[in-house]
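[STRUCTURE TOKENS]
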Amino acid sequence: MKKPEILYSPVPVVEPKEGCDWADTMVLNPALILDEDGKTIHMLFRATGPWPKKNLKGLSDPYPIFLGYAKSEDMGESFNCDFSRPALAPNVAYEKDDMYIRDANGRRVLNYANGCVEDPRIFNIGDKLYLTVASRLFPPGPYWEKDARRDNLPDWVFEDGSEAGRCALANDTVTVLYELNLEELKNGRYENAFTYVCPLTDGELTDNRDVFFFPKKFMINGKEQLLMLHRPDDPSKFEGVTDVKTPSIMLAAAESFEDFTTKKATNKLLATSEFNWEKERVGASFPPIDLGEGQWLVSYHGKQMPDYGYTQSFMILQERENDFPEIIHRMSERLIYAKQDWELPDKFPCPCIFTTGAVVVEDTLIMGYGAADQKIGIAKTSLSELVEYVRRFDSKGNLKN
């Protein structure tokens, strides 16, 4: 059986907008959600531009990261973007007292998304819609040129032993959860569309991103629990994982969102780097797709420099009784990777296609991807043909006859 045919956008569907201060440098990594009308696709995309008015120390202009909104009424062939204002914007406060937000319960909590909201993923759990974003307490500088995460840290960070101070010293990513009101979003009432829930990862433990949930609860260890995918930079920081130090895919189970950063959560390593095109890291890409009979299609990315950059592939998980699901099929081949001129490196030396959202319309899987960390494309394939092909591989990536 040959590989499923994948059709790519011949040109970007979203590009940076000249003159738009929050989106004139990069747009990438879109989350997608299908409207209840079954044909309109809503998109939240990551965007950035220089923000000289928030240059704190003169080292480099900060690049806060925003989310913009777009929609497609032709199955992803084109998108109408709202560049008039961000849908979700970081506050970019530098005074400690200004770095707080009201959560879904009305409590005043530290706003981990003060500096950046990156790489959105949209998903349902039950009848509620949620959004996860990789966030930073402070915006980085031009991160494609150097490690500029600390160029705009205020002095109090180096003197303060508080939670905010300790997390900000590294300025690593913490994944934050929002409730998402799609009606408010698509009608342009952005201020009512996002409700801050809580952080899902511990910034003092390790940088952690590529976080999202399965759309239902699972019975694990005798309790009905939420099930989360995450990708820590250093998996060995978690109990029971001692010998894996490259960024890898983990599962986490807990009874409430707030429990995921505590000892109440149970974590398990799901997948680590196995093949040459994913030597440096692997991470889950867009929320799992229910295949029925307890099986789930999970998209994931691998990275290896300089030969491959970021590429995409797939695995299938099988639910288990009173336990975490396990991998039963994993492709040893990269399936989606940069080929077209507009997808190839520019600011970054890294070839990159990075999918963060997908919708299914009948048998068509429509995936949104960031290309070269600067533009957005759409890839389409037959879901049934893709799943059939993934099932040709066993759990270790061996191609079966």
Summary: The domain at 7-392 is CATH 2.115.10.20 (Tachylectin-2; Chain A). The chain has one domain: 7-392.
